[in-house]
Write a structure and sequence with these properties.
Blueprint lengths: L5 E5 L3 E3 L6 E2 L5 E7 L4 E3 L11 E5 L2 E5 L2 E2 L5 H6 E4 L8 E4 L8 E7 L5 E17 L7 E5 L4 E11 L3 E6 L2 E7 L1 E6 L9 E2 L5 E3 L4 E10 L4 E6 L4 E2 L4 E8 L4 E10 L9 E8 L2 E9 L1 E10 L2 E4 L6 E9 L4 E2 L2 E4 L5 E5 L6 E3 L13 E8 L11 E10 L3 E2 L6 E5 L4 E8 L6 E6 L2 E2 L6 E14 L2 E14 L8 E8 L6 E10 L9 E5 L4 E6 L9 E8 L5 E7 L7 E6 L7 E9 L11 E4 L8 H6 L12 H16 L14 H4 L13 E3 L8 H10 L15
Parallel strand pairs: 4-12, 19-27, 28-35, 37-44
Antiparallel strand pairs: 1-13, 2-15, 3-4, 5-10, 6-7, 6-11, 7-8, 9-10, 11-12, 12-14, 14-17, 15-16, 18-20, 20-24, 21-22, 21-25, 23-24, 25-26, 27-29, 29-33, 30-34, 31-32, 31-34, 34-35, 36-38, 38-42, 39-40, 39-43, 41-42, 43-44, 45-46, 46-49, 47-48, 47-50, 48-52, 50-51
């Protein structure tokens, strides 16, 4: 038999009133009305007043109102609480009483003058109970009982009219009811046994809800569970549910409570507690530590090395549960997210940078991203987790990739000599030299610097870097400015670094002149012009032509030999018959390109107007000079004689507008029979601005020689 001992437990009790406002069925001439004290009530009169009859309201033989007129002899307090309502136009006069009091209780009569009609209303005022008394309740609102002995619970409502209804609830279930008072006996109270976790190990992954259950046996009445997590005993019971089973053989309850709660990595190693209690016990509980698995957090330390350091180790810190990790390749990235290389990290989380020459050590700068995994999916949905850090190599300045060794300047113009530098830390000494002479700021020389993105190669990959552009401006170039220019830099690390650059001075070639037509055929014509007088004989010509009705120029390149010849010939072949063409010529030297000549317009002949002499004149030869053969001279004489006789056929003009009948037969691309390239620029003037456009084009590649072009 269970031991007998006194215990205390909080009892939750409830009472409620079922007659706040209710109406009882009565004969047609009277009815009963109940109202809660302090509320408002309307007493309805079933009669309607007429021109000859009036409605009167009385209470205990005292006239309250007649129609909508209130008895002025009533107390001021009562007058304030009375009001006549209803549709007076149809004779309705109802009595409203606000702020109901006990003194308002009694019989009310509604009568119609001139008749015997009287309607009675019995008003009952409901008064709430003053308080509720539970026998043997302790000051801390707990009942005192003894385990194994019946506990008698007695509840009494103090005051209240009519008698209030009482209801006793234990563990959410109604166990007894009564009016004004009730009594209930709890047979042989039994506290619950210590709860037990149904799982051996309690845990989950941080991306999955925690699901854990506790079971308690042998309680009467049934136990209730409370759940707590953490050192602060955070109550999470709202996230739990219970199932109760009654054991007939022992007349006790078995209760299983299940908690479903979202956790994260901060709950790992936190205490979880399940507590079972009933009316006589509150101190029965069990607890254990949570094991929350989570994906690793990786972080790479930021490190700074000198270019002379031989050992350069970067540590990757990992924190996860479980702590057995798989390391993936570490990525070396530029500061602008270019993947440079992959490196292997040790199982201890140490990344050792490979050995490299001191001169190239700066290429190890950048962002290093390390990736690890422990088999647990992270909150980002990925098993592989990564972290990054920055490595900075303090090294001597470096001249970035793309700096040139030679530039060309134009006589009389100014030139900007730009050099691009990467320096970490920034250089502290800058010196420009012309040959061996130190340059200073002056009207002739101006030296500036600007921060900008420069390009270099890190371990075989082109990258962008935060660097500098150092500029030497040389004004009004003279031939004596042609020299080797040198930039010396230092930032206090290593030796001085230098870059040498050769400046050559040149000029823009003259525009070809005296362009004339020598002969015209059905599908070709020959042009002649004066050779440009240039100090250097390596002159190339661009012969550009197009249909007169078109806007796109087609050009061919022609390289002259050092013959000293003053007049040059070129045959444009593969053309359409009886079609107008525009032709212009530009000269190019190793420095720049001239403006194009003024265009001339030529019309090819039709088949019926083409004599044999013209067709035979199209003899393809490469160049014509003073040392030409006799055969060439004879050919020239034949061409000249024919040209003199047929000059009326040649319609040479400048910028001629072509008639519509010629335009309808033209096709731009059909006339291109060799490896020609399209050129779309056509200058509209010869101003300095226009000339500068051609100067900026420059020469990047050696010109191609079109062997299939007909050229004399």
């Amino acid at each position: 038999m269970a031991s007998t001992r006194k215990i205390t437990q909080t009892v939750f009790y409830y009472f409620h009133l079922t007659n706040v406002i209710f109406i009882l069925a009565t004969p047609a001439s009277a009815y009963a009305l109940s109202a809660l004290k302090g509320a408002s009530v309307q007493l309805r009169c079933p009669y309607t007043a007429t021109d000859r009859s009036r409605i009167s309201w009385r209470h205990s033989s005292v006239i309250y109102t007649e129609n909508n007129i209130t008895n002025p002899s009533l107390s001021l307090n009562l007058l304030k609480r009375l009001k006549i309502t209803g549709n007076h136009t149809v004779g309705e006069y109802h009595l409203n009483i606000s702020d109901i009091r006990k003194s308002d209780e009694g019989n009310y009569q509604c009568s119609l003058s001139g008749t015997s009609n009287v309607y009675n209303t019995q008003l009952t005022v409901i008064v709430e109970p003053v308080s509720l008394n539970i026998d043997n309740m302790l000051p801390d609102y707990k009942l005192q009982g003894t385990e194994g002995i019946d506990l008698i619970i007695t509840c009494t409502a103090i005051g209240g009219q009519p008698q209030p209804d009482l209801k006793l609830l234990i563990s959410g279930s109604t166990v007894a009811t009564g009016k004004q008072s009730l009594q209930h006996t709890l047979p042989k109270l039994i506290k619950p046994l210590s709860p037990i976790f149904t799982q051996k190990f309690l845990g989950t992954e941080e991306t999955l809800p925690l699901n854990v259950s506790c079971i308690s046996h042998g309680s009467r009445p049934a136990a209730n569970f409370t759940w707590f997590i953490g050192q602060t005993y955070m109550d999470v019971t709202i996230n739990s549910s219970e199932t109760k089973t009654f054991n007939l053989s022992t007349e006790t309850f078995t209760v299983i409570s299940t908690l479903n709660y979202n956790v994260d990595r901060t709950y790992n190693r936190q205490m979880i507690t399940c507590k079972a209690s009933n009316i006589i016990s509150t101190n029965v509980s069990s607890n254990t530590l949570l094991n929350i698995k989570y994906a690793p957090i990786a972080s790479v330390e930021n490190k700074t090395f000198l270019q002379t350091d031989k050992v350069r180790n970067v540590h990757c810190s990992i924190q996860g549960n479980p702590s057995e990790y798989t390391y993936f390749k570490c990525h070396h990235m530029s500061f602008y997210d270019v993947m440079i290389r992959e490196l292997t990290i040790s199982q201890s989380g140490i990344l050792s940078l490979p050995e490299i020459s001191t001169k190239l050590a700066y290429q190890d700068s950048g962002m290093y991203t390390c990736a690890v995994g422990n088999g647990i999916v992270g909150t980002n949905g990925q098993e592989k987790q990564s972290g990054n850090g920055f490595v900075k190599i303090n090294a001597q300045p470096v001249f970035a990739n793309g700096n040139v060794q030679k530039i060309n300047g134009i006589f009389g113009r100014s030139i900007y000599v730009n050099l691009y530098v990467y320096s970490e830390p920034k250089y502290t000494a800058i010196r420009w030299y012309k040959n061996t002479n130190l340059l200073k700021q002056s009207a002739k020389y101006s030296m500036t610097e600007n921060m900008m993105i420069v390009y270099d190669v890190f371990h075989g990959k082109e990258v962008q870097l935060d660097g500098y552009r150092l500029t030497l401006l040389i004004n009004e170039l003279r031939f004596e400015d042609a020299a080797v220019y040198k930039l010396l830099l230092s930032n206090g690390i290593g030796n001085l670094v230098e870059h040498n650059l050769l400046l050559e001075i040149g000029h823009i070639p003259q525009t070809p002149t005296n362009i004339t037509v020598v002969s015209v055929g059905e599908t070709s014509f020959t042009i002649q012009w004066n050779h440009v007088d240039d100090k250097e004989l390596h002159i190339m010509y661009y012969i550009e032509y197009k249909l007169s009705i078109a806007s796109t120029w087609i050009y061919k390149e022609m390289i002259t030999k050092e013959t000293g010849n003053q007049e040059l010939l070129y045959i444009l072949a593969g053309l359409q018959t009886s079609t107008y063409y525009d032709v212009r010529i530009s000269a190019v030297n190793s420095f720049n390109k001239s403006l194009p000549s003024i265009a001339i317009t030529v019309q090819t002949t039709s088949k019926e107007n083409t004599p044999n002499a013209i067709q035979s004149a199209a003899i393809p030869i490469v160049a014509l000079g003073t040392s030409s053969t006799i055969l060439t001279i004879v050919a020239w004489l034949i061409v000249g004689l024919f040209w003199f006789k047929r000059k009326s056929i040649i319609k040479t003009k400048r910028n001629k507008t072509v008639s519509s009948q010629h335009r309808s037969d033209t096709q731009i691309y059909d006339v291109v029979s060799d490896s020609t390239r399209i050129k779309t620029d056509q200058p509209k003037d010869t101003t300095d601005a226009s000339r500068a456009v051609y100067e900026s084009l420059g020469l990047k590649d050696k010109p191609n020689i079109y062997m299939d072009s007909e050229f004399k």
